[in-house]
Amino acid sequence: MATTILVFMVSLMTICGISYGVVYKVGDSDGWTSTPTIDYKDWASTKTFYVGDVIVFEYKKEDDNVVEVRHHEYRTCNTTSAVVTYSSGKDSITFKMPGHYYYTSGFPGRCQVGQKVNFRVLAGQSPNTPSPPLSGLQPSPSSCPCSKSDASSSVYYSSFGPWALYVLGLWGLGYAAPPLRVEEIVSSDEVML
After folding, report:
1. Which residues contact 3 (CB under 8 A, 6 or more apart)?
2. Distance CA 45, CA 111 (A)
3. Closest CA relative to residue 132, chosen from 17, 23, 11, 10
4. Residues 149-162: tens digit of each pLDDT
């Protein structure tokens, strides 16, 4: 039984570990806008993205959106065949597979003036992913994408998932078992009077 639980927990930790990565705010302090002070292509080229990393597009939802497109549509600024359109104003996208990903604004003329970005995503885990802290738990990016920020950086970290799985694994193996009830102690064969 303990072996089955151990195999299950290791498998679960491995699967969930894939989604444990670095979170980047696209455009840093500018966010996603048609008038950035940075070039989105240059911004993305200074970073290395891995499977499990998360990109966050922040913008005024009344004034913009984010459209994922294929390479040809990216180059020609054609958004009529969008893969996915995001419009929440704070869209978090987790890279689940290696490859190239292309995004632009779906609003007319914005792609042509440079509001587009592409990401090359590598297999494996980011070497920038921090180890889970020994004290305290932090929320994951899905519940609070930008809660742990450094004023000079757009990189955020998540560590809740791996620690929660670790604790559950210890509990499942009996290392952190709940306390026994009095009836269980009294009925034990090892009780000596």
Report:
1. none
2. 18
3. 17
4. 333 344 444 444 44
The CA distance from 98 to 109, in Å, is 30
Reference 168, options 180, 176, 158; nearest CA is: 176
Q: How many Cβ atoms from other residues are within 10 Å of residue 69's Cβ?
A: 26
Instruction: Determine phi and psi for 32, rounding to 5 degrees.
Output: -100, 110
Compute CA distances 130 → 47, 92, 154, whole Å.
Answer: 16, 19, 15
- Contact call for residues 176 and 167 (beta carbons, < 8 A): yes
**What's the CA angle centered on 179, arms 176 and 185, to 5 degrees?**
130
Give the burial string for 59-68 (b: 16+ CB within 10 Å, else e): beeeebbbbb
Can you give the pTM of this predicted structure?
A: 0.61
pLDDT digits (tens, 9 = 90+) for 93-117: 999 999 999 999 999 999 999 999 9
Q: How far apart are CA 36 and CA 21, in angstroms?
A: 26
